[in-house]
Design a protein that fits this description.
With 283 residues, this protein is mainly α. It is built from nine helices and no strands.
């Protein structure tokens, strides 16, 4: 994946206000579609709604000079509420994916069977304790209301910012977050870097409907960067969940081995994001 669908980009011939309002409308259509298919594809719907929330946050960051601080704070609070409603479901999917992947790659039959049982147990717990339909419906309702409010404000008063200045600020924020993460190597810093990189990606997609070859390379690199950082965050989350399930001072051998595999994978990911970051600096 490189560019966002054209419906999420300002088109040639559109002024900033027109394009911004149209993209908001397309996000509304997409959110309603994801809600309609939730029964058949719950994981896809949760992921899709989370992506829309993040894309909207990036758009608001890009256009923040056009809104008052009070307006932005209110909208951001609503979007945080919607994200929190979906966080448990997203974390569960991540844990399932990582555990199932480990069960396919581990050589020890006993460990593999235990991981399979752990994955099954996680599914049963999720089915008993969670109410994904209600959480998703409420999250979508909050998102739709928020989009409508932003759209009405944009129609009344809106001044499209200087794209070059806003993108330069997003590039700088991502670069600073990357330096901090690579220097300190803490999970929180890598997660912050991912959020900054994803914001940059969505802002590039918003403003580059017909990118040059050079810009296309940049967008691809930012896309790869945020994907690798997402894998890093998922690995940290899975390890935390494993340690929560087995909180003993001496957890089972397969858990210790799983943690080692996850840590080894994160070392590879750190090397990969360092290289991508180096390439982005030479853009």
């Amino acid at each position: 994946m490189t560019l966002a669908p054209s419906i999420f980009a300002i088109q040639p011939g559109e002024n900033g206000q027109q394009g911004f309002v149209r993209v908001l409308g397309q996000m509304t259509v997409q959110a309603r579609h994801l809600l309609q298919i939730a029964a058949a594809s719950p994981s896809e719907s949760v992921h899709g709604i989370r992506v829309l929330i993040k894309r909207l946050r990036a758009m608001l960051s890009f256009t923040s000079p056009a809104f008052s601080s009070a307006e932005l704070n209110r909208v951001r609070a609503h979007l945080r509420e919607a994200s929190h409603l979906l966080a448990a479901q997203r974390d569960f999917v991540v844990m399932q994916t990582v555990v199932e992947k480990l069960s396919r790659t581990t050589a020890n039959v006993s460990d593999r069977n235990t991981l399979v049982r752990l994955a099954s147990a996680q599914k049963r717990v999720q089915a008993i304790t969670a109410k994904p339909d209600q959480s998703l419906q409420l999250a979508v309702a909050i998102l739709l209301t928020t989009i409508e409010q932003i759209s009405e404000q944009a129609k009344i008063k809106f001044r499209w910012p200087n794209s070059s200045e806003r993108l330069a600020k997003a590039f700088l924020a991502s670069e600073k977050a990357g330096k901090k993460a690579l220097r300190r190597r803490r999970a929180a810093q890598f997660h912050d870097w991912r959020k900054k990189a994803k914001r940059l990606l969505y802002q590039l997609q918003l403003t580059q409907s017909d990118p040059s070859k050079r810009m296309m390379r940049t967008i691809n690199r930012v896309d790869r960067l945020q994907e690798k950082l997402g894998d890093y965050h998922d690995s940290v989350l899975a390890q935390n969940r494993l340690e929560e399930v087995f909180p003993d001072q001496q957890p089972p051998r397969f858990v210790r081995q799983s943690v080692k595999l996850l840590e080894k994978g994160r070392r590879r990911l750190r090397k990969a994001v360092r290289e991508i970051s180096r390439q982005m600096k030479s853009r």
